[in-house]
Design a protein that fits this description.
The complex is a heterotrimer of chains A (about 700), B (about 250) and C (about 300).
Chain A: H1 4-33, H2 44-56, H3 66-94, H4 114-144, H5 160-163, H6 166-192, H7 202-211, H8 215-237, H9 243-252, H10 288-296, H11 302-306, H12 308-311, H13 318-333, H14 345-348, H15 352-355, H16 363-367, H17 374-387, H18 394-406, H19 419-422, E1 429-430, E2 438-441, H20 444-448, H21 453-465, E3 470-472, H22 482-487, H23 490-506, E4 511-514, H24 517-525, E5 536-538, H25 539-548, E6 561-565, H26 579-588, E7 591-592, H27 623-636, E8 643-648, H28 651-663, E9 671-674, H29 675-683
Parallel strand pairs in A: 1-3, 2-3, 2-4, 4-5, 6-7, 6-8, 8-9
Chain B: E1 2-7, E2 9-11, E3 19-20, E4 23-24, E5 31-33, H1 35-51, E6 54-61, H2 66-75, E7 80-85, H3 93-105, E8 111-115, H4 126-134, E9 138-148, E10 151-157, E11 163-169, E12 172-176, H5 188-197, E13 200-203, E14 213-219, E15 228-229, H6 234-247
Parallel strand pairs in B: 1-6, 1-8, 6-7, 7-13, 8-12, 9-12
Antiparallel strand pairs in B: 2-5, 3-4, 9-10, 10-11
Helix pairs in contact in B: 2-5, 3-4
Chain C: E1 5-8, E2 11-12, E3 15-16, H1 18-34, E4 38-43, E5 56-61, H2 70-84, E6 88-92, H3 97-108, E7 112-119, E8 125-129, E9 134-140, E10 145-149, E11 165-169, E12 179-185, E13 199-203, H4 213-222, E14 226-229, H5 231-235, E15 256-260, H6 266-272, E16 277-282, E17 295-298, H7 301-311
Parallel strand pairs in C: 1-4, 1-6, 4-5, 5-11, 6-10, 7-10, 13-14, 13-15, 15-16, 16-17
Antiparallel strand pairs in C: 2-3, 7-8, 8-9
Helix pairs in contact in C: 2-3, 4-7
The chains are: A mainly alpha (about 700), B alpha/beta (about 250), C alpha/beta (about 300).
The complex binds flavin-adenine dinucleotide and iron/sulfur cluster (2 copies).
Flavin-adenine dinucleotide sits at the interface of chains C and A.
Chain lengths: ~700, ~250, ~300
């Protein structure tokens, strides 16, 4: 089709494009390789294939935003189709007789049977339409209706380029590219139809009826269409649309360790002659897989949508973190600012206040369609800030100080940890002194907080009633360190692990049960790294088993209650403990309603990752308050005059939500209860009567 | 600048304190650093950071567990640590102040910091006593210290937000109420690193002093655990509260 | 050696602090039991020293004593104590007394008891040690002792009187002092600094609404106190954040903390548990605050507040 001159120009242009593309991706790969060693990945080819399949079916994006995800799917399939279309177009241009128009109808085509060609033409034509539609929706969303979800709140640190609208510019370029490219391709097809419509090219045929056919038109449109491609491919490596290529790779290289296991503060892999400081100060202190995150990021802000800290008006946006990383790397590698890599991350990608606002709820990582881990970066940044003597919140500091001296964050003496147990009407075994079947790891809040202790005692009573052989470690138990680690205090975490390991070493037990999801998470997922290999159960699982084995029986069905259940992050999203609490509630016979955000999508109460220790409390609607409202709305659509309960299975939740019920003025409408309180009522275990303490 | 911080290792009041005989049962309590000493260490390090010098932390090792505390102090910015090996958990402030003074003398300090008080200062605080032994002026209740040209400028706090600024020609002893900045946090990994590398000088206790107090009894205060309830109608309650406040000079 | 009791009084801005009267009152009681004199010692000028019920008042004034100066005051008191050889020297365990008592003890080799709340006529002293967790009874050896007493331990009225003071010159040369007073520091302006208040009326959610803050404010004014609160009150916007007591607010240690409608959550207790006198009014007789307060009443806060206003 092309003239010889055109062919020469085309080949030269194509070579230039390949050159720029190679340079672009080499720069990216070099920059990724500068990251620190990442935790070992197993069977990389296998997981890349799996990721490829996931991408092909667009599985990961459907975790949120269903409609937009469908449209993205259209874009995706359209562009995949277009990869083939462009290839055949190029071949058509270069190889005489390689001509797909009219399939085998008029011009006999040498290479393929007519049926295949017609199918191909039909797909290409329809996909062109879908692509144009999808890109226009995306364009309208960003530029006309200006979807808030694509923007960042004012208090969030942004790269100057981002602030100046670089993301929008990138999008615009790609939008224009798609419209021009697809439009031109359609036109070139339309111009070719010199013998009237082709039933396998409905859109091109329709266009043909308006513009007619033209040999010059074919050439011009062909050049516009393919010229764009040669420009855009190298451009992509420099724009946010690198994700076309990097997302599937990133997904294939995503975290393989359990969700609840943080990467170590310094790489486990020893590199001769390199000494790593804990955590991350600069972007290349991050594991290389997380440098890659920046290139894989779609900049879709799905993670920002689900971030409780972002909801709470804190200056944190996990997507801004990735976006900033990306633009920082771009300025340093493609731009002329390599020195910017030497600025601390807290000046370039995330503000210190934002770093300390993260609840480590994992929602961002869970929702990310490309397997990014902004939360892991935040923890690494905290780690280094602590080492570098950054002035941390006084509440957090007090908590850490107390953890270092007392082994708990509440400034209580070690000996007071088992005080509640000594007050019980039956002896609670000391697991460090006599063998037990279940070692109950109680946790700080459940051991010390007066508001939670009644529930702790109730758990003991129910265990006792069910004949469970259990004991606690009394003063030998220390905080398990889950939140300490997530605050970034790796040294203290290790110290606590050592203390607990020593205590476990003194004890004889078969398995561990814990009432605290935070302790549960670290004992289950992180202690194994320190040699602590045990079966660890959350009390909901243990209780369910006791019911199933008939050791507990429901005497009174609780049909007078209407309840909803909050999945604690560290039980649910982190460890998949969704079913036991729900089954228990079913056994108890309550009327159960699921909140819109449940299980994987559960919304964090706002206490995790050290937030409960914060001395400064920011104004604005707190996540927990929002959650109580969500529960009430759920109840409203199922109105009845039953007593409305908000069921929790985490001592911290008990505190956070009881507080939120009060602060939202909803006392009397909804009550927060630990599941153990319901079980006690259903099983018929009561608190022993206490003499009136108040003097008459 | 030779900056010295005198610290006190004291029974933790986070626990209920068991009593044995007429004193605390020192064998079954945890010992912690006096909370005001955290402030004084911070203030000492702040002074060092401002004008240079070395910070030496000195304490009496009562139960052979002072090393942790001294490592912590080094992790926070102290340069040297000295412990007086007494192994006498019940040593009172007078004894400790005497031993510390003897140990500090040899360090020829320009300024000595101590916590303004400790919860077990039944016979007074070590700060003013060290000042007396070393014949240096003492100012307590201090919330900021600046040093220039052999003179310290300190802010002392009185009640009700009122304070006063003093200038003192060095050497002196400062009783720190609060450092000019909240004490920094020393990450445990750093403390552990210090524990492996730092050396602690040891000194035998020398000198003799006693509080001159005989302990006759030690017991938890009688009326704790529950408020004394004021009964009656709201009017009667109000009257009793007002009466109570008046009797205490509060109304 | 005498059986006299010296009370080192303290004053600021022309006014003696309450603890001075408390100590003089106690000293009188002890002196009469011991057969000695209760002698009030006033160091520094700018104050009317004829206000104590002491048996005698010594007023030492000097240009160098115009403002509290621990070095100058210490020298004067040391000289005076040496001269008088009293049976007991009493200080307040206060910002000034804390600079002097232990220093004097070490200087003179005389026993000293601190955190003193009680003194018997045999000079047996009850000390509130270990953050109030233990009471120690201690007996000083020898024939002179020093007591540094907690404010509010004894009634103040007993010390008020009109004994004429004897003015004396400084017994020591105050020529070359190392410590120099530079200037006074006044509390900053802006909203009330609740951490520096001696009296606080603190309201919780029981106050019900912004419209009721006024009542609490009135009561606070009548008591010459400032108004503070628990967090929900701040969250609701009824009072500014500067008034919040507790974990995420400010830590306070007033002499009086009158709590109206506060349940006593640990986060709140963290900010106020070391207040000297805690009185709680709450309709819920099981409210946890009653385990912490010194005095409590199960009553409606509005009724109590209004009744108190009538009485004040
Ligand atoms: C991380 C975190 C940090 C926190 N930090 C703080 C903090 O710094 N400071 C703080 O205060 N709280 C803090 N809280 C909140 C704390 O847990 C409690 O929710 C709060 O202290 C309760 O305040 P309250 O006592 O005023 O309210 P409530 O607990 O609701 O108590 C109100 C009381 O008023 C009584 N009452 C009602 N009406 C009357 C009446 N007419 N007359 C008399 N009594 C009446 C009721 O019986 C009840 O006892 C924090 C919570 C969390 C989770
Ligand atoms: S872990 Fe949770 S709080 Fe932290 S950035 Fe992610 S979504 Fe936000
Ligand atoms: S990190 Fe993931 S979820 Fe967040 S914006 Fe990037 S691609 Fe989207």
């Amino acid at each position: 089709m092309l003239t010889t001159v055109e062919k020469i120009i085309f080949i030269l242009a194509a070579l230039t494009s390949v050159g720029f593309t190679y340079h672009g991706f080499k720069t990216i790969v070099d920059s990724i390789r500068k990251g620190r060693p990442a935790p070992e990945l197993k069977d990389i080819p296998g997981s890349l294939v799996k990721a490829g399949v996931a991408v092909l079916f667009q599985q990961t994006i459907f975790k949120a935003r269903k409609v937009l995800s469908a449209i993205h799917m259209g874009l995706f399939f359209g562009l995949i189709t277009y990869a083939f279309v462009n290839l055949t177009d190029a071949l058509e241009g270069l190889i005489p007789g390689f001509d797909l128009v009219y399939g085998g109808k008029n011009i006999p085509f040498k290479f393929l049977p007519a049926g295949v060609i017609n199918t191909f033409n039909l797909i290409a034509d329809v996909m062109s339409g879908i692509l144009l539609f999808a890109i226009i929706v995306m364009f309208v969303r960003r530029f006309i209706t200006k979807d808030k979800a694509l923007t960042f709140r004012d208090n969030i640190l942004l790269n100057p380029k981002v602030l100046a609208g670089a993301q929008a510019r990138d999008s615009l370029i790609v939008d224009v590219f798609v419209v021009m490219h697809v439009g031109a391709r359609l036109l070139s097809q339309a111009y070719r139809l010199n013998e009237g419509p082709d039933p396998f090219m409905p859109i091109a045929s329709f266009l043909n009826s308006m513009v007619g056919s033209s040999e010059v038109g074919v050439h011009v449109a062909w050049w516009v269409s393919l010229g764009w491609v040669m420009f855009i491919i190298p451009y992509l490596s420099r724009s946010k649309h690198t994700h076309f290529f990097m997302s599937p790779i990133n997904l294939g290289l995503a975290k393989q360790n359990p969700r609840g296991q943080l990467d170590p503060a310094v790489p486990l892999k020893v590199i001769e002659g390199t000494r790593f400081d804990p955590g991350a100060k600069h972007v290349h202190d991050l594991a290389w897989t997380r440098v890659l995150d920046a290139y894989a990021c779609v900049q879709c802000n799905r993670c920002q949508d689900v971030c409780p800290a972002n909801f709470y008006q804190r200056p944190l946006s996990p997507s801004a973190l990735e976006v900033n990383k990306r633009y920082l790397l771009k300025e340093a590698t493609f731009g002329s600012h390599p020195e910017k890599l030497l600025l601390p991350l807290t000046e370039t990608v995330i503000s210190p206040e934002a770093v300390w606002s993260c609840t480590t709820c994992y929602a961002c990582v869970r929702v990310c369609p490309v397997g990014n881990e902004p939360m892991a970066d935040i923890v690494d940044i905290r780690r280094r800030m602590l080492i570098d003597g950054y002035e941390i919140d006084s509440g957090v500091q007090n908590a850490l100080q107390s953890l270092a001296t007392n082994g708990n964050w509440m400034s209580k003496g070690k000996r007071l940890r088992g005080k509640w147990a000594k007050e019980m009407e039956f002896p609670v075994k000391d697991a460090t002194a006599e063998p037990v079947d279940h070692l109950w790891f109680v946790g700080d809040t459940a051991s010390f907080d007066e508001r939670v202790i009644p529930n702790t005692k109730m758990v003991a009573r129910i265990f006792n009633q069910a004949g469970l052989d259990f004991g606690i470690m009394y003063k030998e138990e220390s905080n398990a360190g889950n939140d300490v680690r997530r605050v970034g205090e790796e040294g203290l975490f290790e110290q606590l692990v050592e203390q607990n390991m020593a205590a476990f070493g003194k004890s004889q037990f078969q398995r561990i049960v814990t009432t605290d999801p935070h302790s549960f998470n670290t004992l289950k997922n992180e202690y194994p790294q320190f040699g602590g290999q045990w079966e660890v159960k959350h009390y909901t699982v243990t209780l369910l088993r006791l019911f199933e084995e008939g050791k507990l029986t429901v005497k009174n069905k609780l049909s007078n209650y209407k309840v909803t259940f909050h999945d604690p992050c560290y039980l649910g999203r982190y460890n998949g403990g969704f079913t036991a609490p729900r089954k228990l509630l079913e056994l108890l016979g309550v009327e159960f309603h699921e909140m819109p955000r449940n299980c994987e999508n559960s919304f964090c109460c706002g206490a995790g990752g050290g937030q409960i220790w914060m001395g400064k409390v920011a104004p604005g609607e707190r996540p927990a308050e929002n959650r109580i409202k969500e529960a009430l709305t759920t109840f409203e659509s199922n109105a009845s005059d039953k007593k409305q309960l908000f069921i929790v299975t985490c001592p911290k939740d008990m505190i956070m939500y009881s507080d939120a019920v009060k602060t939202t003025g909803n006392e009397g409408r909804i009550e927060v209860r630990d599941i153990i309180q319901l079980i006690a009522e259903a099983v018929g275990v009561e608190e022993p009567a206490v003499a009136e303490a108040v003097a008459a | 600048m030779n900056i010295v911080v005198a610290i006190k290792h004291i029974p933790s009041i986070a626990d209920d304190l068991p009593v044995s005989g007429n004193n605390v049962d020192f064998d079954s309590v945890d010992f912690v650093l006096n909370e005001f000493d955290e402030q004084s260490i911070e203030q000492a390090v702040l002074v060092k950071e401002a004008v240079g010098g070395t910070v030496t932390v000195v304490g009496v090792d009562l139960i052979e567990e002072l090393d942790n505390i001294l490592h912590l102090a080094i992790a926070k910015g102290a340069d040297k640590a000295v412990k007086v090996t007494a192994d006498e958990p019940g040593a009172d402030s007078h004894m400790q102040a005497k031993w510390l003074s003897e140990a500090i003398k040899g360090l020829s300090p320009d300024i000595v910091f101590a916590g303004v008080q400790a919860s077990n200062d039944l016979d007074g605080q070590i700060g003013p006593m060290i000042a007396a032994h070393l014949d240096m002026p003492y100012i307590g209740g201090v919330s900021s210290v600046e040093v220039a040209d052999g003179t310290a400028t300190v802010n002392k706090e009185f009640a009700g937000g009122v304070g006063a600024k003093y200038s003192v020609s060095l050497p002196m002893v400062v009783g720190v109420q609060a450092a000019a900045k909240p004490p920094r946090y020393a990450p445990i990994s750093k403390v552990r690193q210090v524990a492996q590398t730092a050396t602690i000088d040891t000194v035998e206790p020398s000198g003799d002093a006693s509080s001159g107090l005989t302990f006759k009894k030690m017991a938890p205060p009688v009326a704790t655990g529950h408020a004394e309830m004021i009964d009656g109608s709201p009017k009667e309650v109000a009257a009793k509260i007002v009466e109570l406040l008046k009797s205490k000079g509060l109304a | 050696m005498s059986n006299d009791i010296l009370v080192i009084t303290e004053h600021m801005d022309g006014k003696f602090s309450d603890v001075s009267f408390e100590l003089v009152g106690k000293a009188k009681e002890l002196a009469s039991a011991l057969g000695g004199q209760a002698v009030a010692v006033v160091v520094g000028g700018g104050v009317d020293a004829n206000v104590f019920a002491s048996d005698a008042t010594i007023h030492i004034d000097d240009a160098a004593l115009g403002q509290f100066n621990p070095e100058a005051y210490g020298k004067v008191i040391e000289a005076l104590v040496k001269e008088k050889s009293p049976r007991l020297v009493m200080f307040g365990w206060t910002a000034t007394g804390m600079d002097l008592a232990a220093w004097l003890s070490a200087k003179l080799g005389v026993p000293c008891a601190a955190y003193v709340k009680e003194i018997g006529s045999d000079l047996m002293m009850g000390c509130q040690a270990y953050g109030g967790k233990l009471m120690a009874e201690v007996a000083p050896e020898g024939d002179m002792a020093i007591a540094a007493c907690l404010a509010g331990s004894f009634p103040a009225e007993a010390g008020q009187g009109s004994t004429a003071a004897t003015a004396t010159a400084s017994p020591v040369d105050l020529g070359s002092l190392k410590v120099k007073f530079v200037e006074a520091i006044k509390p900053e302006g802006g909203d009330v600094d609740i951490t520096s208040q001696t009296k606080l009326v603190s309201v919780g959610r029981g106050i019900g609404g912004k419209e009721n803050i006024e009542l609490a404010e009135e009561l606070a004014q009548a008591l010459d106190a400032a108004l503070s609160c628990s967090r929900p009150v701040v969250d609701a916007g009824w009072l500014p954040r500067t008034r919040q007591v507790g974990k995420s607010g400010l830590k306070v240690k007033p002499k009086m903390y009158l709590m109206l409608g506060i349940s006593g959550a640990p986060e709140h207790l963290e900010g106020m548990k070391s207040a000297e006198l805690i009185i709680a009014v709450n309709t819920d007789k099981k409210a946890p605050i009653f385990n912490v307060a010194h005095y409590g009443a199960t009553a409606d806060l509005f009724e109590v507040a209004e009744a108190m206003l009538e009485l004040l």
